[in-house]
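User: quick one, fold this
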Amino acid sequence: MKRFNKKDLFTIPNLMGYFRILLIPVFCYFYIKKQAYLLAAGIVLISSLTDLFDGYIARRFNMVTELGKALDPVADKLTHAALALCLTFRYPLMWALLALMAVKEGYMGIMGLYFLKRGKMLDGAMWFGKVCTALLFVVLLVLFFFPHLPLAAVNALILITMADMLFTLCMYIPVFHRMRKS
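Assistant:
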C-alpha cells in the first residue's frame, strides 16, 4: 500500500474532502435535533458545492492524489448515508432505502477489497452506477430542501430510487462475476 506524503494530505481538494466529512455531524445536528430544515439544507448545499469544486480544482491545478481518489467517494458515501439517516426521522420508508443502500454499498465495498487484494480494479464506475449515485443524491437533496412535500410524492421518490439502486446492484453482480473468471 502506498504511503501518502504531507503534500498529498494537505492539497486544497483533499482539505475540501475533509471539510465535507466534518460538515456531516453539523447538518445532522440541525436537521434531527433542532429541526432547522432550511439551515441543514444550506449546510448540505455548502457541502455539495465543495464536492463539485474539489475534483475540478484537483484536475485544473494538477492536485490529483491517490488519497483524493479514495477520499472523495468515501466523503460522498458518508454524506449520502447521513442524509438518508436524517430523512428516516421524517419519512418511515427511508429506512428501507437506507437498508438497501447498506446492502449495495456493502457488496460493492467487499467486492472492491476482494479484487484489490488480487491486483484488479474496476475501470471506474459503470454508467448505471453513476446514474444511481446521481439519482440518489438528487432525491436526497429534494427531500432535504423541500421538507413539506406530500408524503405520497416522497414515498414515490424513495421507491423510484430504491428500484434504481436494486437495478444497479443487479447490474454489478455479473460485472464482478466476469472479473472473477478472468
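User: anything notable?
Assistant: The radius of gyration is 17 Å.
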